[in-house]
């Protein structure tokens, strides 16, 4: 029995090799499998600490909100209430973990997802992201603002209510910092944007393009680390979400919703996903112009019932093995319906 040969592809954003090994995707499997149950959640759950009018574990009471609700995380990983860092002069490796963590409830409805919301509702969420980034990135001590959504129990989500989070840090996290460094080097050496070059190459090739509109393009990158990894990039070069026009944010909401529907339709299930809004670092010490704002989807599934695990070679060595060629996963996502499977089955 023969399989397509493994190849390695260079990821210019992280400066590392990605291994594409299709034979690993058909290995005999006796390990854990994923099961997905239908969405049978109530519109309002009085035991959900994100629903309107509910008392959270902290004792705070949610307002009876009818749109988007943003609040500071009751149990944050980072806080501005910790002491100012005075240890740097002492050369100690331990410093206060200062920052801001917020929760963004997308809707008062407990039982919907981005894929099931209207484009106008998604647009309203993105405008909230816009406002939050504008406010938080202006804080002098904050160097990076990451907006993200974790979706699905297998991701580790503790609450199914549709929501995202914002982590603001007084340092730039490793992956954005690495991407920024490679983008800056490319800009200095070739006087072009490395992200714009990737978009240009993907559009010219065409095989990994999933969908596009006047302002954005969604594709599985040539160097995808995960089986169904997808980027959404604006065609226009902007480093921050706050530099998008109102029209562009509307276009972004439309293509984002479409991608979420495509993901759900791929395996006819609520698709577990990590969605990250990648803005340039906001430190006043850097020039953000070499960075290109984008959204990345990092789903953990390699098939309808199997997760992608980072085992010995990947955790110990750091290089990722992807069991599916990006061209094939892009084709699969491109060929699914843009009408959500739950609506088609009604």
Please render the helix and strand layout as text.
Layout lengths: L6 E5 L4 E5 L48 E4 L26 E7 L13 H18 L7 E8 L11 E7 L4 H17 L3 H12 L3 E4 L3 E4 L10 E5 L11 H22 L5 E6 L15 E4 L3 E3 L2 E2 L4 H6 L3 E2 L3 H10 L5 H4 L2
Parallel strand pairs: 2-14
Antiparallel strand pairs: 1-2, 3-4, 4-6, 5-6, 5-10, 7-8, 8-9, 9-11, 10-11, 12-13
Helix pairs in contact: 1-4
Folded structure, characterized:
The chain has one domain (13-22, 41-80, 97-344): HIT-like (HIT family, subunit A, 2-Layer Sandwich). 26% of the residues lie in helices and 19% in strands. The strands form three sheets. A nine-stranded antiparallel β-sheet has the order 3-4-6-5-10-11-9-8-7, sandwiched between helices. With 346 residues, it is an alpha+beta fold. The model has no long low-confidence stretch (mean pLDDT 90).
Write a concise keyword list for the protein shown above.
alpha+beta; 346 residues; 19% strand; 9-stranded antiparallel β-sheet; globular; HIT family, subunit A
CATH architecture, by name, is 2-Layer Sandwich
Q: What is the 3D form?
A: globular
Structural class: alpha+beta
CATH class: Alpha Beta
Strand content: 15-25%
Quick description:
The protein has 346 residues and is α+β, with helices and mostly antiparallel strands. The protein has helices spanning 119-136, 174-190, 194-205, 246-267, 312-317, 326-335, 341-344; strands spanning 7-11, 16-20, 69-72, 99-105, 144-151, 163-169, 209-212, 216-219, 230-234, 273-278, 294-297, 301-303, 306-307, 321-322. Strand 7 and strand 8 (216-219) form a beta hairpin.
């Amino acid at each position: 029995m023969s399989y397509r040969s493994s190849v390695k592809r260079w990821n210019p954003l992280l400066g590392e090799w990605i291994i594409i090994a299709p034979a690993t995707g058909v290995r005999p499997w006796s390990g854990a499998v994923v099961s997905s149950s239908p969405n049978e959640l109530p519109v309002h759950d009085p035991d959900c600490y994100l629903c309107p009018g509910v008392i959270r574990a902290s004792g705070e009471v949610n307002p009876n909100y009818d749109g988007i609700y943003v609040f500071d995380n009751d149990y944050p990983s980072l806080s501005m209430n910790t002491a100012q860092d005075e240890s740097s002069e002492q050369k100690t490796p331990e410093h206060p973990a200062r920052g801001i963590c917020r929760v963004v409830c997308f809707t008062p409805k407990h039982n919907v997802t981005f894929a099931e919301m209207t484009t106008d509702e998604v647009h309203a969420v993105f405008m909230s992201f816009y406002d939050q980034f504008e406010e938080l990135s202006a804080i002098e001590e904050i160097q990076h603002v990451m907006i993200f959504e974790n979706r699905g129990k297998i991701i580790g989500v503790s609450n199914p209510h549709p929501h995202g989070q914002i982590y603001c840090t007084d340092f730039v996290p490793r992956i954005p910092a690495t991407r920024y460094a490679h983008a800056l080097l490319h800009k200095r050496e070739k006087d072009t944007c490395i992200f714009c070059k990737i978009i240009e190459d993907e559009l010219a090739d065409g095989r990994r393009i999933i969908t596009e509109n006047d302002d954005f393009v969604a594709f599985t990158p040539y160097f995808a680390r995960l089986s169904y990894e997808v980027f959404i990039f604006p065609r226009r070069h902007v480093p921050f979400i706050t530099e998008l026009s109102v029209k562009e944010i509307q276009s972004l909401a439309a293509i984002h919703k479409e991608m979420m529907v495509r993901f759900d339709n791929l395996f006819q299930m609520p698709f577990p996903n990590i969605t990250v809004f990648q803005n340039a670092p906001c430190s006043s010490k850097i020039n953000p112009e070499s960075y290109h704002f984008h959204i990345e989807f990092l789903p953990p599934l390699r098939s309808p019932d199997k997760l992608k695990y980072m085992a010995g070679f990947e955790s110990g060595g750091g290089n990722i093995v992807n069991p599916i060629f990006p061209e094939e996963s892009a084709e699969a996502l491109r060929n699914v319906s843009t009408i959500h499977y739950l609506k088609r089955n009604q």
